[in-house]
Amino acid sequence: MTITIIGHGYVGLVTACVFSDFGNDVWVIGHTKEKINKLKKGDPIIYEPGLAELLQKNLKAKRIHFELDYESVNHSEIVFITVGTPPKETGEADLSAVFDVARNVAKNLSDSKNHFTVVSCKSTVPVGTNKKVEIILKKHKLKNAKFSVASCPEFLREGTGIHDTINADRVVVGSDSKKAIDLLLELHKPINGKRVITDLSSAELIKYVSNAMLATKISFSNLISFYAEKVDADVEAVLDAVGLDKRIGRIFMSPGVGYGGSCLPKDVMALIEVGKKLEIGSSFLIEVEKVNQMAKENFLNKILKNSPGKNVAIWGLAFKPNTDDIRFAPSIFIINSLLKEGFTIEVYDQEAENNIKKLFGEKIKYATSPYHALKNADALIILTEWNEFRQADLNKIKKLLTNPVVFDGRNIYDPSVLKKLGFRYFSIGRP
Ligand SMILES: NC(=O)c1ccc[n+]([C@@H]2O[C@H](COP(=O)([O-])OP(=O)(O)OC[C@H]3O[C@@H](n4cnc5c(N)ncnc54)[C@H](O)[C@@H]3O)[C@@H](O)[C@H]2O)c1
Question: What is the residue with the minimal CA distance to atom 27 of ligand 1?
C-alpha cells in the first residue's frame, strides 16, 4: 500500500518505520525543513530504542520518504494524521494542528475515478474531532475526490514503541465506512493484537478512557503510599498482595513521584474539560490529577526536610526510562522547586539531558556519568528508573556522596540493604 503519515514524532515516525518495514511505500510529511533534512539522512531526531536502525534500513530500501509538501496524499490509499494535540491553558486539547493538516490533506486528495482514500487520526483527539475533520475534508477537497474518515487511535508506549506497534494489545478501528475499515484492517494484517471494530465516537473515547485508567492506577497507588507512610506500612507489599486478586492485578500499580509524559497528563486534563462541557462532572478525574500533584509535592517535601545540604545530584530526567521525552516529567517540577529553594543541582540522564538543557541551560550542571554527578553532592535523588541505576555500585555511591542520603522516587532499591550499608534512604510509601 501507499500511505502518507503527517507528523514524525514518537507516533508518526514509529508508525512510518514499522509500516515501511512491512513493505509498504510510506511518505512522511513534516513542516520543518531542517528536521525533514535530518530524517532524510537517517537521523530520527527523537530517541526511541531501535528507531534509528529501522529508519536507516527502510531509507536504504527506498520505502520511506520525507517531504514538506502534501503531494503524496494524492496517490495514497491511507493518510494518518499523527500531529500533536497538546493541552491549551484551559486543559482542553489544542486541535489546531489536526485541523490545519486536514485542510492540506483535503486539497491534495485524488479525484481520479477509481481512487478512494481513508483519512485517519492516530493523534489522540476528543470525541467528535474526526467528524470535524470530515467536514473540513468535504469543504476543501476537489469535487470528485472520494474519501472516508476513520479513527485509529494509537496505544504505543514510548521506550517500547516499535515492539508495541508490531505487538499491539488491540487494533481499534472506528468508522461508518466498511471500505475504510477493510483498508485499515488490510494494512494492519501483520500486526498482532485483537481487532476492535467500532464507530468513530467509541474509537475516540477508547483512547481517552485507556489513558484515564492508567493515570487512575498510578494515582490510586500513590494514594495508598500516602496511607502507608502514615502508618509505617510497606506500599509495595500491600500492592503485591492486593494485586494477587485477579480482578485487580498489579500491572501499572506503580507508586512513585507521579506520572508525566506527553499523554497521561494532557489526556486526563482534556477528559476533565470534556466532562465539564457535557455536564457529567469531572470530580473523579480532578482527584486523579490532584493526587499526582501531591505525589510530586510529597517527594519534594521529603528532600527539603531531610537533605543534609543544598548540593544534590539527580539521576534520571525523562518521564520514564528508555525515552528522551521530558514533557510533564516530574523532574521539571522537582528541579524548579529545588532551584527556588537555593539548591545546586547536577543531573545525569543518558538520553533526556539535551531536552532538559533547553529548559534549564546554565542553571544546573550536567554530568557525563551517574557517578560523576555525585562528587561533592550532599544527597542523591532518583527520578527515573533507568536500568543503569538499578544495580549501581552502592558502596561507590556512599563513598562519593558527602552524606550517604538517597531519595528514591521510583523505589528501585531494597530499603534493608541500604540501611545495612549505612544510608539514610527515603523512598515512596516504605518504612
Ligand atoms: N507519544 C506517545 O507515546 C503517544 C502514544 C499514543 C498516542 N499519542 C498521541 O499521538 C499524537 C502525537 O504524539 P507524539 O508523541 O508523536 O507527538 P510529537 O510531539 O512527538 O510529534 C508531533 C509531530 O507533529 C508534527 N506537527 C505538528 N504540527 C504540524 C503541522 N501543522 N504540520 C505538520 N506536522 C506537524 C511535529 O513536527 C511532530 O513531528 C498526540 O495526539 C498524542 O497524544 C502519543
Answer: 83
Judge whether 159 lies within some domain: yes
Q: Which atom of ligand 1 is nearest to the CA of 158?
A: 3
User: How far is the centre of ligand 1, averaged over its atoms, from the C-alpha of 216 (Å)?
Assistant: 23
In a domain, 208, yes or no: no
Q: DSSP character for 403?
A: S
pTM exceeds cut of 0.90 = yes
Nearest C-alpha to atom 21 of ligand 1 is from which residue?
A: 9
Shared domain check, 273 and 330: yes
| E-strand stretches of 279-337 | 311-315
Distance between CA atoms of residues 101 and 103, nearest Å? 5
Cα atoms found within 13 Å of the Cα of residue 37, Cβ hemisphere only: 3
Question: Are residues 258 and 131 located together in one domain of the fold?
Answer: no
- Residue ending a domain, among 167, 198, 229, is 198
Centre of ligand 1 from the C-alpha of residue 377, in Å:
38
Contact yes or no for 137/102 (Cβ under 8 A): yes
Specify if 344 maps to a domain: yes
Nearest C-alpha to atom 20 of ligand 1 is from which residue?
9
Going from the Cα of 243 to the center of ligand 1, the distance in angstroms, rounded, reads 34
List residues with catalytic annotation. Answer: 263
User: Residue 331: which CATH number?
Assistant: 3.40.50.720
Residue 192 and residue 270 in one domain:
no
Contact (CB, 8 A) for 273 and 90: yes
* pLDDT attached to residue 66: 98
Cα(77) to ligand 1 centroid in Å equals 21
Report the pocket of ligand 1 as residue ranges, CB < 6 Å: 6-12, 30-31, 82-85, 97, 100-101, 123-124, 154, 156-158, 262-263
Residues 56 and 158 in one domain: yes
HSE on the CB side for 193, CA within 13 Å? Answer: 22
Same domain for 179 and 221, yes or no, is no
How high is the mean pLDDT in each 10-residue block of the chain (431 residues)?
98 98 98 98 97 98 98 98 96 96 98 96 95 97 95 96 97 98 98 97 96 98 98 98 97 97 95 93 95 98 98 98 97 98 98 97 98 97 97 97 97 97 98 88
pLDDT of residue 139: 97
How many domains does the chain contain in total? 2
Which protein residue's CA is at the shortest distance from atom 18 of ligand 1? 9
Residues of the domain holding 179: 2-198
Helices (H), 167-263: 178-187, 200-231, 235-243
**Where does a domain end: 175, 198, 221?**
198
What pLDDT is recorded for position 310? Answer: 98
Relative to the CA of 35, which ligand 1 atom is closest? 37
C-beta separation of 213 from 227 below 8 A: no
Residues linked to residue 142 through DSSP beta bridges, in sequence order: none
